[in-house]
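In this supplementary section we document a worked example of the pipeline. Step one takes a protein sequence of length 242 as its only input; no multiple sequence alignment statistics are reported here. Step two produces a three-dimensional model, which step three serialises into structure tokens for compact storage. The input and output of this example are shown verbatim.
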Amino acid sequence: MHDWGFHHEDRRRRHRRSRHRRIRAHRIGHAGSGVPTGSVDTTPVVTRVDVDGDLKRDTVRLTRTKVSQDRYTFRITVTTAKGKRAIRDVHVADYVDGTLTPSDIWGGTAHLDGVRGAEIMVDRGGNVGDFPWPHVYTWRNNRIVPAVAPRATVGDPAWTVADHFTLVAGYDFSTVRGARQVVATELKGRFVNSERLVYSGTRTTYRWAGGTWKPVRTTKTRTLSEDRARDLAGWTGFTWQQ
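The serialised model returned by step three reads:
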């Protein structure tokens, strides 16, 4: 987290410097092949959870299958309790000299939408930048497919999660009258009197219906304090199971 005691210009400069250092540190020593020069622990992530919705635990496995000059390929494999198998390859940009492992991008599993079975989350941001880049996948018709975020598209299904002085974003899940519901928050930060950081933006309620998230209402927030805004960041209403 940022040290909020700094003057806002100092915060911005420090933020830019720290991000530059992170990116530079990840790229130093990159030989151009994208392949690490030393040994990397690429132990798969394996967990058991009901994915296909039959109330029986399935096996979820995340492996690293390939590293090229500019990206990784990770593979999600689900083997159901009945023996059905589905595979989904996901790509992550190579910012860390070929050393990113399955556990580095693994987000966990949780039940999000109105279809029985858990979703699977991975962070495709490559551990670089100011925000994660979470992508969620789900089981549909014996395939692993993207679970598209509210207000996102199939072409760009990523979910927006941030806890930063420029942006706070997150999702609050619940079940209301038997239907899954999520409130998506997006708040922009600004400084008041050069020192006090406040946020304002929108909170949109979506309800699961007809196999997708349907918007119900959007409300503009009042001006929120930093502490109140940060309470709305990230994922709430459930826990990603590791």
